[in-house]
Structure formats: C-alpha cells, structure tokens
C-alpha cells in the first residue's frame, strides 16, 4: 500500500474543495441534520476514553455529520446488548468478550483495536515481587473468578503449574494486596497500580502481553448489519477516534485536563488521570500503528490473538476482524 | 413529650453511633478500610459540590422510585382485596418480579430506557414494592370480623369495606412497609447507577473503590446512612402522628385451611402460565433482541436439548448446591436476629437509641463498602457469608416485628397490668402472639431478599454459587445460562415462599385466624 503523497494536483484539488466547503459554510442551508449515533464505552468516564472526548470537544464528529452520544459503561452495563439493539452503533469491547458474544449468536466484527497490547498485569509489592510468570508459583493471587481462564492461559503459555497458584476471589481493589490477604493481583496496568502509585505505593507490574498473552483490548465492535448499511457513519466515527487518539498521544496531560473538565461529576482526580493516560498510551501505539495508523492490526497479530483465544476456550476465525473501515480512513 | 425531650434521645443515639464508628476506624487503621468521622466530615467540607450534586441526583431518583414502588404496592393490594380471587396471582407475580436479579434486569432496562435516569428509578421502585405489598396484605386483614359485619349490615360491598375498615386497619402495617422501603429505595437507586448512569452516589462509589479512597467511600456511606435514617425517622414520626387508636382485640374463630387440593393446583398452574405469558409477551412487545433477552422457549432449549445442555444443567446444579449451603443459615439467622432484636427493643425501649441507627445504617450502606470489613473480621468462609446474608435480611424483619409487637390489643394488656403481670409475661402471652402475622409477613418477604443477598455476596466475596455464575455468564454473553439461572432463583424463591406460607397457615390458624379468611 502506498502512503498518500502530496502532489501539486492533489493540493490544488484540496484547496478548491476547501473553498467550496468554506462557501457552503456561509450559506444558511448549512444547518443540515446530523445523524445521531451512540458509542458505548466499556467503563465509567475517565481518561481511558480521552480520544473520544477530544474528538467530540473539537467538533470533529460534527464536521463529519455525526451527533455522537458517549454512553457510559459500569459494573452492570455490558457493552454487547446496546450494540446488538442498535442503541449504540459502535461498542468498546475486547477480543475475548467479542468472541464469546459471537459464539452466542451475535453478529459482531472488530473494526479497530485501540489497545495493541493487552493491559492485564500481575501487580505485586516490591518486597515479594512477581516479575516473571514463574514467580507466580506458590503465590496467592487476588482476582475475580471470572478471570480464571486468563490466568490459566498465561500459565499454559509459560509452562507454569496453574495448580501451584492459590486464587482468592476478591473485589476489584488493591486493598487485599495492601492488607496482606494476597501476594499479587490480576488487574489492569492503568487502574489499580495507578491508584497505588497515587497513594505512594510503587507496585511491581508484569505486563502479561510481554509474556505471550496476545489479546486485543479496547476493541471497537459493530454489527455486520451496520457494516453493510451504515458504512459512512462508521467511517466518520472511527476517523474521529483516530484523530482524537493521535491528539491525546501528543499531549496526555491536556487530555486528562479535558476529561476532568467534561465530567466534573465523575469524581476524577487530575494527578491520577494524568498518570493513567501516561501509562495507557504506550499500550495503544506501536511501530505498526506508526506505520499504518491508529487502530491497525497485522495478520500475524490476528493469528497470535486466535491462539490466545483458543487457550481461553474461544474458537474464532480471522473473519472476526474486519479492516475495511480502517482501510478507508487511513487510505485517504 | 416536649420538643427537647424528643431530641435528646436522637442526639444520644447519634453520639453513640459516631463513637462506635470512631472506635472501629481506630481499631482497623492499618487496613485502610474505614475512615473515621472527623476525616469524613473534612472530606465532605472539601468536596461539597461533587458530593452535593451526586446526593441530589441519587436522592431524586430514590424518591421517585420510592413513590412509584409504594404506589404500585398499594394499588396491587387494593386490587387483591377488592377481587380476592386475584390474590394468589398478584402475590405470585409480585414475588417473581421481585426475584429478578439486577444482573439480568440492568441491561434490559438500560436498553429500553436509554442513558437517562430511567433504570435507576425503576430499580429503586423494584427494590421497595414487595416489602410494602406483603405487610400491607397482612394489615388489610388485621381487624375484628365485627367491623366487617357492620359494613355488610348496611348492605355495602367489598369496596366500602376496603375504604372504611381495611385501609385504616392496615395503616400500621403500611408504615412498617414504608420504613423498610426508605433505605431500600436509596440503595436501589445507587445500585441502579451501576448499569451505566452518568452521575450519582453509586457512580462515585465505584470510582472511589478502585482509587482506594477510603475517606471518600465512607463519606458516601455516611451520607447514604444519614439520608436513610432521616427518612426512617420521618416516616416513624408520621406513623405515630396518624395512628393513636389502641390496637383492637381481634377475635376470630379458628377455621380449617381454606381451599381444596385441586383448587391450589389450579392456582399454581394459572400462576405459572401467567408468568410465562408475561415474560414472553413483555419481551416481544418491547421488541427486545433475543441475543440478551431470552424467551421461555430459549431457556427450555438451553436446558433440555441444546448441544451443551448437559454442561449447563451441571453448572446450574453445582451452583445451586453451593448457594443453598449459605442460604438457609443466613435466612434463619437474619429472621432470628430481627425478631429477637424487636422483642428486646420492646422490653427495653432505651436500647433502641444505640441499636436502631446501627440497624438502619447496616441496611443503607452499600454492601460493596461493608463486605471487605466483614471479610476482614470473619474471613471469606461460611461465617462471613452467612453474616453478610443475615445483615441484609434482618432489617425488614426487625421493622415488621417492631410494628407487630405494637399491635398487642390495649384491653388485654390492661387486663395483664391489673393482675400485675410483668412485661416479660405480657410479651410472651400478648405481644408475641400479636406479632405473629407481622413475623410471617417478614419471613415471606425475606425469602427473595435472602436469595438476592446470597447471590450478591457470592459475587463479591466467595466467587461461588449462583451469584458468581450469573455474573460470569453475563460477562461472557452467555445469556441462555443467565436466564436459566434467573429461572432457578425464581423457582427456589417460590418454593421457599410456599413452604413459609404453609407453616404460616398452620400457626396463624390458631393465633390469627382473621388472616386466613378471604
């Protein structure tokens, strides 16, 4: 694929188009109806979705004719039902959740991957650290039992005896680790370790993605139906996301400040949000995305995901990923 | 009683609660689990805007849910009384709807009602209507037959009976229901925010939980408890203001348990058909996508002949077994604690000062805040789980029984006093028999409450049983398994409810026969 080159012809054409748009902007007929679409987030508002906030704040979606509602997630707000029902055009999910939903009959496709590296870590305290998967043996790990397959997959990938680890079902909080109830936690790089750091405790984190756990996270999903009938809106939505995240990468502190400004009632803390953004962005961009653009994936990446998904008990084919929307965005 | 005299005990009670809270915080300082009152007040003073706006949102939703839920309960009770044949159907359907776990209803409500306040209000209403309906149905029968005969002798029908006699007799029971509903509505609105609400106390709870901000978390808990206590006290004051009549002596002849076996089987069949038709009809009518809103047929298929039906059944049976292990002890402990405390508080009214605020606080602080504490003290084993279930169950029983104990007929108590019978003797021979209808109402409404409590505790602490299975199946989009679990939870509730009702009929046939007439 050729990167778009800037020729004189193209520049002239662009200038002419710009003039036309500029003129159109002066006319009263500009008040065209925008299409209302929903973007279902996977969790509460935070800098985790800063790219979307930047896109909305700068009116990039409005320019493209979209009126985007950002639907907040929560502990009891699964992403899949609103996307299936059409309440949301796009949802933010993860490859394993999407694979499970597809196995249950939902017709989803992954149309973009925000987190190139899975954010799952094993967090421990420096006094008794877990730096490699082998260190897990004999340890008590605090986690939701729902994540048992995740730990099992990590063990299989690294030849660690799963039965040598004691799982303690805990709420999603760092408190059991600090209370000495467990030796380590299964959590995200961007939440509990950040909370601990803000409270003055530097946790040791082992990123599971660095030990073979290849699983796309914060993936954008849409239904096959939408892909067939609402392409333009999908392209406009994802294009705004890509622009938003590039802007977020350029200045994570500004992104954190915008997040607090947009959601004053969310109980967010600026220092926490800045640190979270700082830790999240490296998971989202790689050599691959620098070359091909935000959200991209390679065929090798998909193959690795399929292997990890198989370990988690999900059988999927490469058809689960649909790159056509990204191709349209990054081609131009 | 003068105004000052009324305020003094309230102040003493608050002081006791604050002292206990401070001690607990100091004792667990290492664990960073509890923040003391001083820190909490400082935090609230530092963040008045944030917490004020969140409190306003949640309070508004809770109030709307409280009003709607209780109105629904009153209407349902009125219909059941005006048209007695519908009683079994109404109380059966009410039980089934109350049994629906949040994890299944949350996404459905959110898809139906969109991103606004709808689901929070609906869940607050769902949290209260059943605990009002059951005492109300009991209260609507708690009167001497002579009063009804008087209405009939004027040639008036059931409606006049309802308006002039039953409604008044039911007032104390209604107020018990409303008092139980006050903290439940607030908690329901908070938990409703877990389904993707933009703002409110529930949203902040999740946020501060993850941020390990114990001070902020306890500020929310303190405000939630304070609001519930205020509402509880206000309803109590209203109840005292409105009902000054001494409870009447209710004499009714013992009667055999009504209804033939065939009639009961017919009632059951009608109820099951109504539930299935309502389930299917509602989902079709609302156009809910079958991906997450499973129809009765889908559940039958998933359990009977789907390729993984055997695995589904095995998972359900195992989870049900694990749940049952904690359910019965927790339920019985909660009932015993509630009834025991009510007896104690009636014998020694002075103890209400320290105990009632704690009881209301326990009911109104979200379990996500208190669960780590109980785990810290009692561990993740059976004791901790059973304690948590008992904590969630005992409050309705306590309130219902307190009101029930007050239903002891004044003349009979006078008679006892004439013979210088002590308060213990009065308790055993007069008050406890008078409390029995209320106790059984509490026992019946605690059945689904206990089951919901067990599933929440399992989800939060033990990671076993039906609660954990439902959370897991929702997160993997296995909605067939989720709805199958919902059916299991409902069937268990219905069966336990039937067992309690059977026992209730045997006991009340002797002690309160008026409860058995139609």
From TrEMBL, chain A:
- Domain SsuA/THI5-like: residue ranges: 48-255
Q: What Pfam families does its record include?
A: NMT1
Instruction: Please give the catalytic activity noted in the UniProt record.
Output: N(6)-(pyridoxal phosphate)-L-lysyl-[4-amino-5-hydroxymethyl-2-methylpyrimidine phosphate synthase] + L-histidyl-[4-amino-5-hydroxymethyl-2-methylpyrimidine phosphate synthase] + 2 Fe(3+) + 4 H2O = L-lysyl-[4-amino-5-hydroxymethyl-2-methylpyrimidine phosphate synthase] + (2S)-2-amino-5-hydroxy-4-oxopentanoyl-[4-amino-5-hydroxymethyl-2-methylpyrimidine phosphate synthase] + 4-amino-2-methyl-5-(phosphooxymethyl)pyrimidine + 3-oxopropanoate + 2 Fe(2+) + 2 H(+)
A Gene Ontology BP annotation from the UniProt entry: thiamine biosynthetic process
Entry superkingdom: Bacteria
User: What keywords does the record list, in alphabetical order?
Assistant: Iron, Metal-binding, Pyridoxal phosphate, Thiamine biosynthesis, Transferase
- InterPro entries named among the record's database cross-references: NMT1/THI5, SsuA/THI5, TAT_signal
The protein's GO terms of the molecular function aspect are: metal ion binding; transferase activity
Record carries keyword ATP-binding: no
Q: In which pathway does it act?
A: Cofactor biosynthesis; thiamine diphosphate biosynthesis
Q: Does the keyword Metal-binding apply?
A: yes
Give the UniProt family note: Belongs to the NMT1/THI5 family.
What is the documented function of this protein?
Responsible for the formation of the pyrimidine heterocycle in the thiamine biosynthesis pathway. Catalyzes the formation of hydroxymethylpyrimidine phosphate (HMP-P) from histidine and pyridoxal phosphate (PLP). The protein uses PLP and the active site histidine to form HMP-P, generating an inactive enzyme. The enzyme can only undergo a single turnover, which suggests it is a suicide enzyme.
Complex and partners = Homodimer.
Q: What PANTHER family does the annotation carry?
A: 4-AMINO-5-HYDROXYMETHYL-2-METHYLPYRIMIDINE PHOSPHATE SYNTHASE THI11-RELATED (PTHR31528)
Query: What protein am I looking at?
Result: Thiamine pyrimidine synthase
Q: What is the lineage of its organism?
A: Bacteria, Pseudomonadati, Pseudomonadota, Alphaproteobacteria, Rhodobacterales
Automatic annotation (TrEMBL), chain B:
Q: Which PROSITE patterns does the record associate with it?
A: ABC_TM1
Coiled-coil spans are none
Kindly state which keywords UniProt assigns to this record, in alphabetical order. Cell membrane, Membrane, Signal, Transmembrane, Transmembrane helix, Transport
- One Pfam match, given by its short name, reads BPD_transp_1
The GO biological-process annotations, alphabetized, read as: transmembrane transport
Provide GO CC annotations from the record: plasma membrane
Q: What is this protein called?
A: ABC transporter permease subunit
């Amino acid at each position: 694929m050729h990167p778009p080159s800037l020729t004189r012809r193209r520049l002239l054409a662009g200038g002419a188009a710009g003039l036309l748009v500029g003129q159109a902007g002066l006319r009263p007929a500009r008040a065209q109806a925008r299409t209302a679409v929903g973007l279902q987030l996977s969790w509460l508002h935070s800098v985790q979705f800063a790219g979307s906030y930047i896109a909305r704040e700068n009116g990039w979606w409005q320019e493209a004719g979209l009126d985007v509602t950002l639907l907040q997630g929560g502990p009891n707000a699964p992403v899949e039902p609103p996307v299936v029902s059409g309440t949301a055009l796009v949802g933010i999910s993860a490859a394993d959740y999407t694979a499970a939903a597809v196995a249950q009959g939902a017709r989803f496709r992954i149309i973009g991957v925000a987190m190139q590296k899975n954010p799952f870590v094993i967090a421990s305290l420096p006094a008794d650290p877990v730096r490699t998967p082998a260190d897990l043996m004999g340890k008590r790990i605090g986690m939701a039992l729902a994540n048992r397959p995740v730990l099992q997959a990590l063990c299989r990938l690294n030849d660690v005896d799963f039965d040598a680890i004691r799982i303690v079902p805990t709420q999603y909080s760092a408190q059991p680790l600090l209370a000495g109830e467990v030796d380590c936690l299964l959590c995200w790089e961007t939440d509990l370790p950040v909370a601990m750091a803000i409270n003055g405790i530097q946790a040791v984190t082992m990123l599971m993605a660095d030990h073979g756990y290849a699983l796309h996270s914060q993936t954008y999903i849409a239904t096959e139906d939408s892909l067939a009938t609402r392409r333009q809106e999908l392209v406009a939505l994802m294009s705004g996301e890509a622009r938003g995240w590039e802007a977020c990468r350029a200045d994570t502190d500004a992104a954190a400040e915008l997040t607090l400004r947009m959601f004053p009632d969310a109980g967010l803390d600026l220092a926490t949000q800045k640190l979270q953004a700082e830790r999240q962005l490296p998971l989202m961009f790689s050599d691959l995305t620098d070359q091909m653009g935000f959200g991209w994936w390679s065929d090798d990446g998909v193959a690795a995901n399929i292997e990890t998904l198989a370990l988690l008990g999900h059988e999927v084919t490469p058809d689960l990923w649909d790159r056509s929307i990204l191709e349209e965005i990054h081609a131009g | 009683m003068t105004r000052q005299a009324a305020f003094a005990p309230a102040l003493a009670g608050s002081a006791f609660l604050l002292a206990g809270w401070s001690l607990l915080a100091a004792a667990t300082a290492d664990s960073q689990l509890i923040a003391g009152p001083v820190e909490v007040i400082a935090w609230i003073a530092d963040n008045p805007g944030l917490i004020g706006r969140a409190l306003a949102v949640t309070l508004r939703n809770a109030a709307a849910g409280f009003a709607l839920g209780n109105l629904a309960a009153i209407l349902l009770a009125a219909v059941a009384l005006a048209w007695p044949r519908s009683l079994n159907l109404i109380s059966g359907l009410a039980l089934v709807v109350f049994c629906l776990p949040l994890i299944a209803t949350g996404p459905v409500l959110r898809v139906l009602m969109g991103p606004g306040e709808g689901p929070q209000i609906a869940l607050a209403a769902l949290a209260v209507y059943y605990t009002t309906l059951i005492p109300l149905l009991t209260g609507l029968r708690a009167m001497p037959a002579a009063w009804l005969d008087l209405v009939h002798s004027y040639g008036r029908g059931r409606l006049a009976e309802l308006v002039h006699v039953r409604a008044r007799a039911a007032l104390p029971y209604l107020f018990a229901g409303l008092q139980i509903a006050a903290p439940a509505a607030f908690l329901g609105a908070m938990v409703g925010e877990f389904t993707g609400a933009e703002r409110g106390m529930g949203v902040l709870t999740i946020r501060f939980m993850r941020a390990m901000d114990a001070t902020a978390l306890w500020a929310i808990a303190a405000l939630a408890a304070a609001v519930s206590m205020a509402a509880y006290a206000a309803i109590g004051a209203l109840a005292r203001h409105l009902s000054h009549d001494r409870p009447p002596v209710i004499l009714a002849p013992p009667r055999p348990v009504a209804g033939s076996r065939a009639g009961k089987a017919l009632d059951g069949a009608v109820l099951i058909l109504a539930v299935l038709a309502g389930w299917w009809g509602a989902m079709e009518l609302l156009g809910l996508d079958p991906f997450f809103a499973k129809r009765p047929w889908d559940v039958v298929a998933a359990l009977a002949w789907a390729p993984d039906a055997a695995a589904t059944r095995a998972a359900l049976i195992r989870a049900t077994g694990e749940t049952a292990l904690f359910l019965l002890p927790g339920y019985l402990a909660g009932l015993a604690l509630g009834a025991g405390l009510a007896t104690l508080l009636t014998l020694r009214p002075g103890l209400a000062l320290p105990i009632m605020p704690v009881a209301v606080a326990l009911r109104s602080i979200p379990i996500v805040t208190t669960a780590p504490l109980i785990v810290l003290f009692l561990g993740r084993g059976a004791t901790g789980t059973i304690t948590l279930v008992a904590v969630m169950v005992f409050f309705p029983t306590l309130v219902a029984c307190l009101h029930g104990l007050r239903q002891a007929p004044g003349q009979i108590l006078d008679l006892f006093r004439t013979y210088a019978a002590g308060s213990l003797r009065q308790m055993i021979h007069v008050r406890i028999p008078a409390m029995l209808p209320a106790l059984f109402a509490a026992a019946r409404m605690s059945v689904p409450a206990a089951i919901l409590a067990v599933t929440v505790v399992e989800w939060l602490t033990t990671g076993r049983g039906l609660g954990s299975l439902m959370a897991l199946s929702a997160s993997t989009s296995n909605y067939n398994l989720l709805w199958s679990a919902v059916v299991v939870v409902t069937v268990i509730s219905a069966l336990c409810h039937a067992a309690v009702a059977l026992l209730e009929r045997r006991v009340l046939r002797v002690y309160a026969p008026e409860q058995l007439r139609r």
